[in-house]
Amino acid sequence: MLLFIIFLLSLIVPVRAYAILPRDHQPTKQKRKRSQSETCSLAVFLGSGGHTSEALALVSSLDFSRYTPRKYIISEGDTLSAQKAIELEKQQTSDPYNPNYTILTLPRARRVHQSLLSTPPTFIKSLLAAIWHICIEPNSRGKPFSDALLLNGPGTCVSVCAAAYISRFFGLPSPRVMFVESFARVKSLSLSAKILRPLADR
């Protein structure tokens, strides 16, 4: 019986995983366009340093009254990215006493100069935290984490994307994933981009 269950799962899991992957070669269904009065909740991963500057430059061009509420995801210890996000919010919003954003801190999936061999434990820690904040907590309250998820940066964005896909795997509300490669990458893709390229919706 146990062998049969394992065999069944080995068939179901890959099929389900393939079914939820974006496939550019297939014609996509016409999606309903949002009206001008509809809002879109947005989550943005700030990867520190230049990655944070690039992500915030993209966000600053958006209409904050339409893309609301906003979540800024930062890595543990990255206080500078949090400060930059707060500064942007102060510049863009007219009511500083009623902020419509939150800052979410996750453990780092991989520290600077950390060897690949020692990465799995830290990645798992980051992934578990991302699963809690992106999958379990929002769905327990009956609300999706966000409508859209903008990723740019280092390894922690991989755990964030993986958490979003776990929600999608189980048929739970999950954000559309958009990955933007670092502007400095002009000749080759980063490791994060190579991993997330087949997973990103845009």
- Strand proportion: 5-15%
Low-confidence spans: 25-30
Strand order of the largest sheet: 3-2-1-4-5
- Main sheet specs: 5 strands, parallel
Can you count the beta strands?
5
Portion in helices: 40-55%
Shape: globular
Radius of gyration: 18 Å
Distance between the termini: 42 Å
Assign the structural class, choosing from mainly alpha, mainly beta, alpha/beta, alpha+beta, or little secondary structure. Answer: alpha/beta
**Continuous helix count:** 6
Description:
The protein has a five-stranded parallel beta sheet with strand order 3-2-1-4-5, with helices on both faces. The chain has helices at 2-20, 49-60, 79-92, 119-140, 156-169, 191-196, and strands spanning 42-46, 70-75, 101-106, 148-151, 176-179. Helix 2 (49-60) packs parallel to helix 3 (79-92). It has six helices and five strands. It is 43% helix and 12% strand. The N and C termini lie far apart (42 Å). With 202 residues, it is of the alpha/beta class.
Summarize the structure.
With 202 residues, this protein is of the alpha/beta class. It has six helices and five strands.
Please give the structural blueprint.
Elements: H1 2-20, E1 42-46, H2 49-60, E2 70-75, H3 79-92, E3 101-106, H4 119-140, E4 148-151, H5 156-169, E5 176-179, H6 191-196
Parallel strand pairs: 1-2, 1-4, 2-3, 4-5
Helix pairs in contact: 2-3, 4-5
Question: What descriptive keywords fit this protein?
Answer:
alpha/beta, 12% strand, five-stranded parallel sheet, globular, 43% helix, 5 strands, 202 residues, 6 helices
